[in-house]
Design a protein that fits this description.
single chain, alpha+beta, two-stranded antiparallel sheet, 12% strand
Length: 165
């Protein structure tokens, strides 16, 4: 900054920027720096998969999930993104699935979805793996018929309807 009676140096600018950033962090996270956690500010929210209908906003608090503390930045393996500026670090973009394929032993592959394997709010698998996703853990992804059958807890058989003559 330059005025008729003062010229701000690089060190002045950096000192003020640091003080402003530190002040903002204290305002959001408190005075105890040892308790500061990125996930306290950097959270992911998972809205329901209901169509955008007028009444959906009324039930969203009951069937959406989050905010969930989330690690990562745009340049990390767990690539998350948030709007720059304004002090809002809520995640707007995050990986919904992570998949590790072992091409030498497909049955050793791993995967995780962000919330669960079902889009139905009353299913036990609607949000049963959100904590695994948050903690960067995975569950097995069997590939061979034997491994799939061994891991299965139920089977759904769909038969086509009889053709109408």
């Amino acid at each position: 900054m330059r005025s008729e009676d003062q010229i701000e140096t690089r060190d002045d600018i950096l000192t003020r920027a640091f003080a402003d950033a530190y002040g903002a962090a204290v305002a959001q996270l408190g005075d105890d720096r040892d308790s500061w956690r990125w996930g306290a500010l950097h959270t992911a929210t998972f809205p329901s998969t209901l169509p955008q209908i007028a009444s959906a906003s009324l039930i969203e608090p009951f069937i959406g999930r989050g905010p969930a503390a989330t690690a990562g930045t745009i340049n990390a393996i767990n690539a998350t993104q948030w709007p720059l500026g304004g002090g809002d670090f809520a995640v707007h973009t995050a990986p919904t699935a992570r998949l590790l394929i072992d091409l030498s032993a497909l049955d050793d592959s791993l995967m995780i979805l962000s919330t669960g394997h079902s889009g139905h709010p009353y299913s036990p698998h609607y949000d049963d793996i959100l904590t695994l996703w948050q903690d960067h853990n995975y569950h097995p992804l069997p590939w061979s018929r034997g491994a799939v059958e061994a891991a299965s807890v139920s089977r759904l058989i769909l038969n086509p309807a009889a053709a109408n003559p």
